[in-house]
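Appendix C reproduces, verbatim, an entry submitted by the partner laboratory led by Prof. M.T., so that reviewers can inspect both the input and the predicted structure.
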Amino acid sequence: MDNILRVSQIGLSAREVTVLRSMFGVLPQLKNGHVFVDLDEGIKPSVVLLNADSHQAIADWKAFAAKNKGVVPVLTSATKSSESVKHLKLIFMSRPITVKRLLTMLEQVVAASLSARAARVTSVKTEGKKDDFRILVVDDSLSVRKYMELKLPEIISGPLAIDFASNGRDAMEYIWSKDVHLVFLDVIMPGMDGYNVCKAIKAEKLSDVIMLTGKKSPIDRVRGSLSGCDAYLTKPPQDRKLREVVQQSLRRLGREGINSLHQINAGPSRLRSMVGRPAGNL
């Protein structure tokens, strides 16, 4: 997922398309993460604004939707009201297109998408074990995610579930839909940075948050503390430090009777060298 919401249209007038392009180009709310595309560009959109007043546009949409699953249709009309089409259970936007109507529609699209994802996650959750120590690793580096996938079971005994997110937005969607005990959180990521993700988590959840980042300056540590993190580790994490912060989290979360730390393996470990290496070399 690249977090870009791509919007296109079928059946709108040339003037309406010009207005849309202008809005997507100048509105601060749309400059980051939203783009307007033409269907003939060959880029699959996330959303299509469909002129519900045109029979040809509806026919074109049906042909397009048959070949492009998962695209959200938004009905637009200059003659109908939301009441007259609510039985269709689709997102609706009146025309003429205004800034307020466009932003409201996009908020509805995002909300519907989050609800759908949360429903999918909840359905999976019922298959898991209730006593799992659930950890979320949030990092845009595949090598770091792979390192933690291999390292954490080496350290923690007992029922354990480890999941991953590559950016802050995906992390928040996951955390809103699941009870996560411990979050390992990178700072520099696409979209929301780790500090803001940490603040959002601490405002809503009781999860422990451990910053795991390449940023090592005292100022960065202070920023991490101000954001509410419970511990701050730099990459690659030393085994001793990693064990210490995990042990502290188990205590804070009251998990010591369910999970504990494995005894230290005296043999050499190759895992730390994975952090920072290109994914193709793993």
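The first strand starts at residue 5 and ends at 10. Additional entries are available on request from the coordinating office.
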